[in-house]
Design brief:
By secondary structure, this protein is of the alpha/beta class. The protein has a single domain, classed as Maf protein (Alpha-Beta Complex), CATH 3.90.950.10. It is built from six helices and seven strands; from the N terminus they run E-H-E-H-E-E-H-E-E-H-E-H-H. Strands 1, 2, 3, 4, 5, 6 and 7 form a seven-stranded mixed β-sheet that branches. The two termini are 19 Å apart. This is dTTP/UTP pyrophosphatase.
């Protein structure tokens, strides 16, 4: 008798995460956009924040799809111990870009896989990114393009902000929103991917 493979549920409405998981040859059976409080806890570091939110998103989706294998992720941009917000307005995006200009920062991309039996597998990628020093004109042009909206740290590495990236050490897919090496490893361990 063979074990039944649970349906794969992606706990994210992000088209980037759908595109990334497709690179592994997977199409989710269901997509559930979770709505959790993403506010950092007092004293929470960027690394801990990313891991906690990925697990909370998986648990929130599991309440709606208890028989599914829930895959979720969260990406956090950290400047030192500071957690940079998802930019929802131009002022926030401009502040983030000015802070990241000419310096290194870390991008923590956590992934969680919650199985129907309650088993939670987690992984984290940590990527170091260094931006060139940005001129006011470069920041203005990037803000005008609108790619920053809803993005952690106010930028999307898969867009024109890649031109600001002097170097990157770690997972490029993790900076986009789902670290594929870590995600694949979790899916293989769970028997969901060969």
């Amino acid at each position: 008798m063979t074990a039944t493979v649970p349906p794969l549920v992606l706990a994210s409405a992000s088209p980037r995460r759908r595109d990334l998981i497709a690179r592994l040859g997977l199409v989710p059976d269901r997509i559930i956009a979770t709505d959790i409080d993403e506010s950092p806890l007092p004293g929470e570091t960027p690394r801990v924040h990313a891991v906690r939110l990925a697990a909370e998103k998986a648990r929130a989706a599991a309440a709606l799809a208890p028989d599914g294998a829930i895959l979720s992720g969260d990406t956090v941009v950290g400047a030192g111990r500071r957690i940079l917000p998802k930019a929802e307005d131009e002022a926030t995006a401009r502040h983030c870009l000015a802070l990241l200009s000419g310096r290194r920062h870390r991008v923590f991309s956590a992934v969680a896989l919650l199985m129907p039996d309650g088993t939670l597998r987690e992984a984290l990628s940590e990527t170091i990114v260094r931006f060139k020093r940005l001129s006011e004109a470069e920041i203005d042009a990037y803000i005008a393009g609108g790619e920053w909206h809803g993005k952690a740290g106010g930028y999307a590495i898969q867009g024109s902000a890649e031109g600001f990236c002097a170097w990157l050490a770690g997972s490029h897919s993790g900076v986009i929103g789902l670290p594929l090496f870590e995600t694949r490893r979790l899916l293989v361990a769970a028997g969901l991917l060969a």
